[in-house]
Structure formats: C-alpha cells, structure tokens
Design brief:
- The protein is mainly α.
- The protein has one domain.
- Helix content is 71%, strand content 0%.
- The chain contains 5 helices and no strands.
- Helix 2 crosses helix 5.
- The longest helix has 20 residues.
- The chain is globular.
Length: 112
C-alpha cells in the first residue's frame, strides 16, 4: 500500500468531504463562491506590502482563514472520544487547498 495520502484528487478524505459539503447544497455553494469573489476583490485592493505576496496568495490565505473559522464555529460541542476524533479529522482539512479551488472557479468565471 502506498504511503501517499490522497482521496479523489484531494489531499485527503477530510478535505474532500468538507469541499463536497460546500458544493453539495446550493446555498452553501453560492455563499462560498461569493466569499471567494470577495476575497479575490479585497486582495486586489490590498497592496502587496507583506512578503510581496501576489493577489492570489493574499486571497487564498484570507479565504482559507475564513473557511476554517466558520467551519470551526459550526462544530458541535462534544466530549470524550467523539471530541478527540472530530478534532483530529478537523485538523486534517487542508483549508488552503479548498480556498484555492474556490478561487480558481471565481477567476475562471470572472475571466481573471
């Protein structure tokens, strides 16, 4: 068995599952596309002063932080082994990868 992690073209199952849920419901999909567009536009207005990051880098970092924070807020309050398992799975999600995919879709739609 290969030591490589990956699932359905994504970094891992946890990342794939979160993106699936984002895309699986129209309201969620629309909301995150709008957030991605907003991150892209905000990054265009932000001068690349810190570490000469590109617009895409700034947008992707900002969007990944928002993705993680909003999904973290939605986690149920659990205790014991269930909390440990949920937190372990949540910690495996590659928010940066999801943000990149959302931004790619926005850039394609906007012709950027």
């Amino acid at each position: 068995m290969s030591a490589e992690k990956g699932y359905q073209g994504w970094r891992n199952y946890e990342t794939w599952a979160v993106k699936l849920w984002i895309d699986n419901e129209e309201g969620s999909h629309t909301y995150w596309r709008e957030r991605a567009l907003s991150a892209w536009e905000d990054a265009a207005e932000t001068p690349p002063s810190f570490a000469s990051r590109t617009q895409e880098d700034r947008a992707r970092l900002d969007l990944s932080d928002v993705l993680k924070a909003e999904h973290e807020e939605a986690l149920p309050e659990l205790e014991g082994f269930a909390a440990d398992l949920l937190n372990a799975a949540f910690g495996e999600v590659d928010w940066y990868e999801i943000a990149g995919e959302l931004l790619d879709a926005v850039k394609e739609q906007e012709g950027a």
